[in-house]
Amino acid sequence: MAPLKMHASVRTVRTPTPLAAVVWVALLAGCTAGPDFRPPAPPGSAALLAAAQPLHTAPGGAAPGQAQRWAADMDMAAPWWHRFGSPPLDALIDQALVASPTLTAAEATLRQAQEMRAAQAGATQLPRVDASAGGQRQRMSPSAQGLPGEGRSFSQYSASIGVRYTLDLAGGNRRALEALSARTDYRHYQREGARLNLAASIVATAITQARLAAQIEALQAIVQTQEAQLHITGERLRLGQAAHSEVLALQAQVEQARAGVPLLRQQHQQSSHLLATLAGLAPTAQGLHSFTLNDFTLPAELPLVIPSEWVRLRPDIQGAQALLHAANADYGVAVARLYPQVNLSASLGSQALTTGALLGGAASVWSLIGQITQPVFNPALPAEKRAALAALDAAAANYQGVVLEALRSVADALRALDNDAQALAAQTGADAAAQGSLQSMQRQYALGSASYLQLLIAQQQVQQIRTDLVAAQARRLLGSAALYQAVGAGWAGAPQSSHGS
């Protein structure tokens, strides 16, 4: 039967006759109030993403800096962090997926939603059966009824089984169960989103830790060369070949560089604490791997971005769609309340003055009750329907907002990949030039045509460029991880559940 449609206006309805009630029941049987849910169409943004997606990334001369290619046949359900080729990273993420309190809470919330759905299904799809037994002691006085005689006391015992069931004529119970199923799916998507976000946070923190370790090493080397340069300038000052202002300028440069080492070391230590916490361990836990850039390999393949696919894969989009589904079902519940409600109840039992007589046929009692209720004037019901429709509109707008934000994150990740690859290629060229200059200066120093001070300056330039190079390498790794996360890689997709119709 076609979905029921109701107008929001309130009109006075006459009390239905028995014949009219029968007609109502016949018309409503098997119907479900409200519109059936249809998933939104995928975003029509293929052209936008195609414009943001380069054909290939620029190669670089230093690992991780090779060119990456786009793969249309990539297994998107596989854990994408394995593509970085880092066993310590894989082990840490495996530890986090087991011990993270965030995931434990998300799992418990999902179980709660599943049990609430099961409770609602049992309460609405099956009749309720109750068994009762009781006894009472009474005293009757004939004088209360104007009769002569003395009062007498007696005991009365009863036992019965009662059955109650509400016919879901307008489909309100089915819609309510559908809404709970959709919210259960939302909790599932929340758990999967938390799992992927946890993995992405660990990858980003590990890469950041590796960058900091390399930059600390380079900055310490810069400090050493500057200290040697300051020592030589001090000797030149003693011999009258340098000005005091030159020594002071170099001393300020040394102290400024030396001050940067503790700041980088603090960030490195904080990254270690964060990795431990993400893995469900104490911040000062011992035995955690300290990551370096050599622990990572730049993924050779990147997922080809197809909007219809990543919309299905991203847990946040699927979660927003589940909330939209729930709001649609809630609207059906509000519509169903405008239609007649039929309640059936029956009981079978016995009453007797002695427990032994309860099993006798003469003590049996039974009842069968049917009741139909049609709202005639209830101002709250139309208002509830309008409120449910407003909630549906809000859920639709929320879904659109989530999709737009996802589009932005994918477009940003695609652009960052190409820009970071070009920046790394340029930085690699600068590093190669600095290394060549250092080698030339070393040969000149060996031949006596260059001073030790000139050699120190060349070494310092190499370390300064090295600091920028490792930052560019880390951005390239982070960009690949951001794209995997943006397209929703790393999980199998939507759960197989039935919402009803």
**Alpha-carbon Rg, integer:** 38 Å
**Average residue-wise pLDDT:** 81
In CATH, the topology of the domain at 45-126 and 181-339 and 381-486 is named Outer membrane efflux proteins (OEP)
Number of helices: 10
At the first level of CATH, the class of the domain at 45-126 and 181-339 and 381-486 is Mainly Alpha
Q: How many distinct beta strands?
A: 6
Poorly predicted segments: 1-26
Describe this structure in words.
It is built from ten helices and six strands, in the order ααβααββααβααββαα. With 501 residues, the protein is of the alpha+beta class. It has a domain at 45-126 and 181-339 and 381-486: Outer membrane efflux proteins (OEP) (Up-down Bundle), CATH 1.20.1600. Helix 3 (87-99) crosses helix 5 (172-238), helix 5 (172-238) packs antiparallel against helix 6 and helix 8 packs antiparallel against helix 9. It is elongated and about 140 Å long. The termini are close together. Mean pLDDT is 81; it is low at 1-26.
Q: Concise description?
A:
This protein is α+β, with helices and mostly antiparallel strands and 501 residues long. The chain has helices spanning 18-28, 46-52, 87-99, 101-125, 172-238, 244-278, 307-313, 315-336, 380-447, 452-486, and strands at 69-71, 128-140, 152-167, 301-303, 341-352, 364-373.
